[in-house]
Structure formats: structure tokens, C-alpha cells
User: Fold these one by one.
Assistant:
Number 1:
Amino acid sequence: MTSEASPYTETRSGGNTAAEGPSWGALAVVMVGTFMTVLDYFIANVAIPAIQSDLNASAAQSQLVIVGYGVAFTAGLITGGRIGDLFGHRRMFALGLLLFALASLACGLAPNADLLVVARVVQGAAAALMVPQVLGVIGTVYSGPGRAVAFNVYGMVVGLAGVFGQLIGGILITVDIAGLDWRSIFLINVPVSAIALAFVFRTLPESRNADGTRLDLPGAVLVTGSLVLLVTALVEGREQGWPAWSWASLAAAAVLAAASVAHLRRRGREGRGPLISPALFRSRVFSIGLAATVTYFLAMGSFFFLLALYLQQGRGLSPLESGLLFLALGAGYFGASLLSGKLAARLGRSLVASGPLTLAAGYALTGVAVVLNGTDGSVLWLVPSLLIAGLGMGMTTGPLTGLVLSGAAPEHAASSSGAVNTAQEGGAAVGVAIAGTVFFPALGAAASAADYPHAFTVSLIPLVVFCVAAAVMIRLIPAPAAT
């Protein structure tokens, strides 16, 4: 990709340009960052009991270890994407990776729960700076069939990190490396980040938006504030039984969101480089695809949450044992991700649309298996349906991401990537909140293990609906114009 063909400026140092045949080492480096950031979204769940015991953490502090990372990560993605557009994708990826390593070190060395929470927030903010640059790099460095392969690899890595987060955490804590216990799940990021950082400037070319505009700070404050209020209210509000403050937070988020739209439109009309260009949403491929992404992740992210509850609290499995059962999801996901690139060339978006339907079938069959087996039957009966669900996830995540970003102009590569990442993480967070509002009332206040199969199965109903809705939306995405 040359500067004449794109509004991005790219340098030769540190990697090849798309026109010269980019090295796949660049993809390997950014995928390391992707895997760690997604993994840390899930892996800390396994360590909460040990953290509570070791640091004498309260229930609220334990929740903030999870929520603090998730809120900072989700709320900062759009701003992180725009920063990458302005100051360079490679440079911001490297900075985010360095900050992520330092925050992980602080998490692993935290002497008390309060400092651990602060370090997790910083870790989430670092991830929000790093992750949008990944899709920005893919979108600007790779082209043609290579880009499709890169997006499929990205989707595979995202899914595998989510699927195996619980298993990896369980293994690290069980092995108890050097007596570190729960601290190892954070400290392991440090050497991995250092190795990746050593190769960033050797493999990644630099690219940035060359429009000369400055960062839209008021827009960043408005968009970030609305996302913080929304995600915090949905996640913490559900945990605390929807107190008055959670509804006030949702109302304030709506007000800030409306103010954000007005601000971005005005700044766009004035040609002053808004945080998110309204022009992005003039593309039906991008706008409908983004809605489909949110809907799909409502169904995907919440399933991990429900399955972990059923297996650990309903069936009494340990984190490691339940993590091993997640291998069925991972096998299906991995297999579909390997095949989706080849099939997409033949089937196009028909393959992407069939992914959520396959996922819906997997969920429905999982519900049937749970009803038939209750709490006494072998959990191995879940393996076939989980394999099908994994296939659906693998058929959708990477190809849908590539499809959505194909509708964005190259000058908005990282900012559009930030919007897609926000749709993914925000959809997952909202999906967990929705699933919780169905699951816990169905479980009842005086719940026993026998109540979990019913609560789990009922909670799958909205997930199936989301899957079908996502498939319909994908079908509505316009086909590319014939050339």
C-alpha cells in the first residue's frame, strides 16, 4: 500500500508494506497482544477466591478486580483507536503493550486489594490503547486474500482466548509456579509482553491518518463517559439487584450518548476531525454490520458466563475441570476458524450468516442435553452440542469482523476498529447483564444444585433469539458492487 493510494503514511522501517508483501511476523506479534488482553478479561474470574483469601478482599473489591478492567477496556477502545489514527498504529501498539506489561507486573505484586483494583483499571486502559491498533494494522498492512486470512486468524485468537481463559487460569493456579498462586496469571504477561515488544519495530510498519487533525478531547470525554456509565450500571447494577443509582447511571449514559452524537456531527460538519467520523455510518455495510456485531456478542459472551455458573455451582466442578469441558467449544471454534477462510471465498456472507444459526443450534442442543441429564448425568453429554456451538462461533467472529471493516474507509482504520472492538466488548458485557437478569430470578433465592439446569436452560432462550437476529442483520448487509 503506497501513500498515493491511501491517506495513511507508512514507513519501510520495522516491516514490509502491503505492496511489498507483508511479513506474517507482524500478524504474530499483534496476535500476542490480542490474546493477552482478551485472556485477562476472563482469566481473573478463576482467581477471585484465592485473591479474597490472600488479600482479605471484600465482595465489592473482588467485583472491581473484574469490572475495573472491563469498564476501562470497553470505554477506552474508541479513543484508543483515534489516537492510533493520529499518532501511528505501531507506536501506540508498542506503548499499549509496554503499559500493559507494567500494569500486569503491578497486579502480580499488589500488596492489597485496593492497589490490585487500581492496577487492573490501568491494565484495562492499556489494553484499550493496544487492541484497536491490531485491526488497524491488519486493515492497512494486509490486502486481498491475505487480509481475509488475517481477519480469520484474529477471530480465532479472540475466541480461543475467551474459551480457554478459564482453563489456562485453572492450570496456572493449580500448578502454583514458584508458590505465586493467583499472582502467576498476571505475572506471566510480563515476559510474554517483553518478547512481543522486542519484535514490534522489526515486523510492523508504521501507519497513521495523515489528515493533520488533532485529537477530539471533548468527544473522547463524552463517548468514554457514556460508555463508563453504561457498562458500570449494567455489570454492577445486576450484581447489586438494580439499585436506584444504576438506573440513574443508565439515564445519564443516554444523555451523554445524545450529547456525543450532537458533538460528533457538529465537529464533522466543521471538518475538525471528530473522534468517530459520522461518515463511517453512511456505509450500510459498516452500520448494519456493527449492529450485527453487537447482537452476536450479546449471545456469545454471555454463554461463557452461564456455562461456568452451571458447571461450577450447579455441577460442583472445579475451575480446572469445567475449563477442560470448554475444550469442546475450543475445538469447534478452532476447526471452523481454519476452514472459514477457504469457505468464505466460495460462500461469501452466506457463510457468515450461517454462523449465528449454527451457534443457535448448538445452544438449543446444549439446553436439551442439560434438561435430559440434570445434575446426575455425565457432563460428557454436553460435548457434541458444545462442539457445534464452537463451530458457530468460529464461523462468525473473524469473518464478521472483516466484513464490517470492509465498509470503512482506510483513513478511519483504527477508529473504525475501535468502534468494532467496543461493539464486541460492550455487547459481551450487556449480554452478561441480560443473561443474569434471566438466570438468577429463574434460579430463585434459596437455590440448590437441582435448580441450576432449569435456570441455565431458560437463560439460553434470549441467546438463541440474539443469534437469529444477528443472522438476519448479516443477510441485510448489502453485497459488494460488481467490478
Note: The two ends are 20 Å apart (CA to CA).
Number 2:
Amino acid sequence: MSNPSLKEYIFKDPNNRPYVWTAIIGIILQLMFFKYLYPFASYINGDSYAYMETAHQNLSINTYPVGYSMFIRLFSVFTHSDTALVVFQYLMLQASLLSLVFTLFYFYDPHRYTRIGLFGFMLFNPVFLYLANYVSSDTLFLSLSITWFTILLWIIYRPSRKLMIYHALVLFLAFTVRYNALYYPLIAGIAFLLSKQSILRKVLGLAICIILIGSFIEYNKAKYYDLCKKRIFTPFTGWQMANNAMYAYKFVPKDQRKPVPKKYQVLDKMITQYFDSTFNNPKYPFEMMMASTVYMWTPGLPLRKYMHDQFKKDSTAPELKRWASVSPFYEEYGKYIIKQYPMAFAKYYLWPNALKYYAPPIEFLEYYSTGVDSVSPIAQMWFEYKSNKITTKFKDFKVDILNFYPILVGTMNVIFFLGMLGFLLLQGYKQRPLMGKGLLLVVCLWLTNFGFSIFASPIALRFQLFPILVMTSFAFLFMEYLIKEATKKE
């Protein structure tokens, strides 16, 4: 069998049999042990319940993208067991991860020790169990993203019409789950350029992606226009922009503040008065977390207060309508403040965010179910709990096993870049051209994700696992190459 498919390679190649059996046994044992310790699913206060409300009411738009809500709604057709959902999420994630691992085995043929190290890192990694235990879009998005990247590797090395269709569908699904996938078509374009197929097929493959994503964007805009007479794709953009700008604005001295245009004066006055009244004595401890989203979500802070002030004459307006209505204005204001104080923005938002990108905090994963021992009525109803209380086999909800992750990620960042530098200096791309193409794809992914994350989104471990896992996979391969070169006999 000269060119087996991935399925044939995994299950029919005798060299892979030990890995397959280890994966099956390892996944079963880990799930059994984990669910014994944590019999209930985990919840993020706000996020999880918003997804469930969207699913329960079958909403076409809501605060968060609707993809995950549609997923759990579909899953509820078969069962309302939270354990079944967690198990399915974990199996889905492991299937995508192991598909990537075997794809790397297939095309790069790494040494046995590299295979064992990479396989073990993906299979016996505790973060995946804690992530899959959450009723959140994180696991679904990570699974789709890993699958998407794996398909890109196959498109580069073994392109086919079927793969181009699979790619478009997976990319579209990922985009409906989380809008971070907005930059994925750019990476896909790089992969298409590297693949050996007709220009027409490349153009059509990219066009399908753009049409699917564009249709979803236009659908959202139409729904938001019906709701609040504003053609916006997602309210997050405006709120995030204003939030990010406030992190810089907070540190601008009072005597150095510039006058703002009349249309911004009411909001600007509320924000500056808040900063003046809380200077060196933050009213909310979370405000001390640099480059966070505290200004978006905390009740009583200026952005939330201004939003509610706009609806004093319409007290029955739903929260989503309020949230969406002010978003375009917040986007304008945020951009204006950033342009007025670019150095403050770079120093107090971009730089702290860059440091967090290097070693992302574990955030909500620091505690089981974010440290809350009860669930909202929607979760109790959805999963048919007898009580609103959730328990574990531990005396508290603290999760210490993941504390090493920021250090590990920072270390793997250094190893990846040193390995990549060595690979380039030794002209490894000439000796191993297949790995050279993979390197180009990974670097494009890293740079694009870095730019998107630093400027536009909060940084936490659960949001950055996709690029971390891809980078770590190639770090294993680069280090093997360097070791081989260093020990090669004359």
C-alpha cells in the first residue's frame, strides 16, 4: 500500500498498533478516574449559562456565537446526561489530537523516541480532561481547530477535492463556535499556495470558505438589524475595543488628557470620573489584572452604566438589544482613545498582553467549576440534576495539577524558536522539504494568532491551546532534527 489514507495508516500499519491500543486503554482509564473524582460537569459563571439559554430558547443570535449552543441542543436530542457530554467532548478532542499526531508520523517519520514523547504529551495531558469537563465552547473549538490544521497538512502534501470540501466545512463550523477563526482563511490561503494542485481548485477552495463565512456574517448582521437597527456582525468588537482602550486611558495623567469630540463627552466624563475616584485604590480587585475584560462585564462600571442609561425610557428592552445597540459607538470611542494615546496603549495593554501570550495564565482552570459549588436553574433543568449543588471527591475546588502550565508553555516557546532557528541555520528545509513547508504554515499561524490575540482578545490558557499544541508538536520535530545533526558522524 504505497499511499494509504490516514485511517489505513493508523489501523493497518503494524507499527502503529501499540499506539492505538495504548490510546484506547489510556483514554478509558483516564475518563473513569477523572469522572470518579469530578462526577459533575464544570461551569463558567456567565459563559456556560449563556450557551445553555441560547440552546434552550433556540436563539439565532446571542451574546456569544451560537455554534456551541446548537451543538449542545443537538446533543440533548440523544441524552441530557452531563457525563455523556463531557465524555463525548473529551473523545472528540482526543480524536482530533491523535489525528494530528499520526499525520505528523505519516509525513515526517520521526524517531521512535520522538513519537513516544509527542504521543504521550497529547494522550496523557491533564489539561484536556479539565477543559472537556466544562460546558463551554473551548473543547469544541479546539477540536475543530486541530482538525482544520491537520486537514491543511494533508492539503499541502496530498491534496484532493474531497479534502478541500472537508476543509471548508470544518472551517465554517469553527467560525460559528468562536470568531477567532476569522483569520483562519488567511492561513488556509498559505496552505493552498504550498499545495500541488490546480490554481482553479485553490481559488475555488478559498472561495467556498469565504462564501460560507461571509453568509454567516451577513445573516448575523441582518438579525442584529432586526433587533436594534444596527448592522453589526458581533457586539463583542465594540465592547472589546472600548475595554482595551480603557486599560491605556486609566494611566493617562489627568492634566494630559485631551478634549474629546462632543458625541463622546458624556461617556468620557463617566470614565474619567471613575478613574479619578479609584486612582491607586481600585474599587474592583479584578481591575488590577492587566489586559483583562473587567470593564466589559462588571456591573456598575462606566461601560455598563452608560449602556443602561441609554434605555431609561425603554426599561423593558432585553439585555442583548442594549448590549448590541451601544457596540458601534463603543468601537468608535475605543479607536479614538487608542489613536490619541498610542504609547499608553502599547505600554499598558499590548505589552502586558504580549507577556501573557508568552506564558498564558490558567485563568478559570485554576478551580473546578470556577470554584462555585452550585449551578444556575437552567443547568439544573438541562441536565436534570436533583439539586443545584455539585461536588467532588476533594475537600475544595482548587486544581493544583495545572499550575505548571504557564512555565511549560513559556519553556516550549523558547524550545520551538531555538529549534526553528537551528533548523533554518542548518538549512534543514533543503534536507527535509516537507518539514520546511510545515514550518512555514506553523510560523504563519503563530504570527497571525499573536497579532489577533494581542490586539483583539483576552489571553488565557484555554484560548491559546490550539497554537500552543501545534507549536509544541513541531518543537518535538525540530529538536529531533537538531539532535541528529549534532550527533551525526563525519
Note: DSSP finds 23 helices and no strands in the chain.
